[in-house]
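Write out the 3D structure for:
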Amino acid sequence: MNVQNVKRIRRKQIIIINGFIVAAIMLTLSIIRLYPVTVTQVYLGSGIVFLLQATTSIIKINSTKSFIPVFQEVAIYEKEKMGNEWKKQRKINNIWRIVASGLLFLYAYLSRESLEILYEPALFPVYVVIAIIATALVNVTFFLHVRKVDDANSSADLEGYTKESNITSIGLGFGYVFIVFIIMLYVIFTN
């Protein structure tokens, strides 16, 4: 695939990804604002989403098919470019989804007695800030991935990429948790 086509599909990909993120954030914020959603329900719902993603991805582990044509083009391009690392990355991503799903189900179980409603009008701006930070994090990891894959000359250049990207993601995840923790402490001590 030539450089212009790669740039075109990457541009479409990031627009669609951010569109999905914005739609998901708006839907989530609207639901928690309009309905009395408990923390347990959020954990349970999120766990189900992660489990469905993992299951779907496991079923079509080597497939590049997607109901969104641009994502299919990207998958074909990345599978060709990354070689064996593409399969490794898909397997590791599924493992992470299953682990996240399990943790969310555990949190739902541990908080099953809680009737705490998630929406607190004073915290709405905090939810928005956390969503913006999460969106920024998704975009940063996307651009790091794109740069690494697109700049590689062959699949040999990407040897060990899955391990490297997972370490980076774990670091960014801890950074995100730390920032959210600081925001929550600020909210707790200023109210």
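The two ends are 55 Å apart (CA to CA).
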